[in-house]
Structure formats: structure tokens, C-alpha cells
């Protein structure tokens, strides 16, 4: 499994790539593997501020629906438009074309509560 070192991770299996005061959020390779074939991504929080660890949407796989939890408090600015027609990108490229949302970070100090790639690997037993 792949866990890019430049990303931060959550105990709920989201990843976040921080670029100044904005960030890109998705789910980890481990999470998409556990969910199976993803058929729909539902994010209704665009334009809204979502607190850290609050639900910002859901991802639907063939057999289950799972909540998506915000890694950092921020305003959701963009939903990945490709996921409307190709939700399977979350399975095939979770850290690239399968990203979920872009956010504007409200409180950069919350980054300290995120996991490194090594800490995330320990969490999932990889």
C-alpha cells in the first residue's frame, strides 16, 4: 500500500495535502480498499465551514455507505467535478485524480493533531 509522506492522515482514514492556507482532502488507499468499488460520492458542504472531525459528505460503495470526516476546520471551496461521472477514480487513484474536496483552512494549528504517514501505517497495522 502507498502512503505518501508529504500528506497528513486522520484516524478516520482521510488524507490531506496542505498548500499554504488551502488543502486537498481525500480518502486513503487503505480506506478505498476496505470500502470496495465506489459508486457515488456525495458532498453537500460546498461553500460551508465544516469543523474538524465533522462529516462533510459520504462515499457510497457497492455494499456500504461511509461518512467522510473533515481533517481540519475549514470552508469547502471545491468538489472534485470528475467524481460525478467517475467515482471509481477514488479506487484507482486515491491520492491523485480521486481527491474529494478542496478547503480553505481556518486554524492551521490543528495540523499538529494529524498523523504522519508512519503513524498512520502503525494505526492500520501496515
The total of beta strands comes to 9
Number of helices: 4
Percent range for helical residues?
Answer: 10-25%
Q: Rg to the nearest angstrom? A: 13 Å
Shape: globular
Order of helix and strand elements from N to C terminus: EEEHEEEEEHHEH
For the terminal residues, how far apart are their CA atoms? 8 Å
Helix/strand-derived category reads alpha+beta
Poorly predicted runs of 5 or more residues: none
Largest sheet: 6 strands, antiparallel
Beta-strand percentage? 25-35%
Q: How are the strands ordered across the major sheet?
A: 1-2-3-9-8-5
Mean of residue pLDDT values? 96
Polypeptide structure, described:
- This protein has 4 helices and 9 strands; from the N terminus they run E-E-E-H-E-E-E-E-E-H-H-E-H.
- A hairpin with a 2-residue loop joins strand 2 (14-19) and strand 3.
- It has helices spanning 29-35, 82-85, 89-92, 117-124, and strands at 8-9, 14-19, 22-27, 38-42, 49-50, 55-61, 65-69, 74-79, 101-105.
- With 126 residues, it is α+β, with helices and mostly antiparallel strands.
- The longest helix is centred in the C-terminal third of the chain and has 8 residues, at 117-124.
- 18% of the residues lie in helices and 35% in strands.
- A 6-stranded antiparallel beta sheet has the order 1-2-3-9-8-5.
- The protein is globular.
Question: What's the arrangement of secondary structure elements?
Answer:
Blueprint: E1 8-9, E2 14-19, E3 22-27, H1 29-35, E4 38-42, E5 49-50, E6 55-61, E7 65-69, E8 74-79, H2 82-85, H3 89-92, E9 101-105, H4 117-124
Antiparallel strand pairs: 1-2, 2-3, 3-9, 4-6, 5-8, 6-7, 8-9
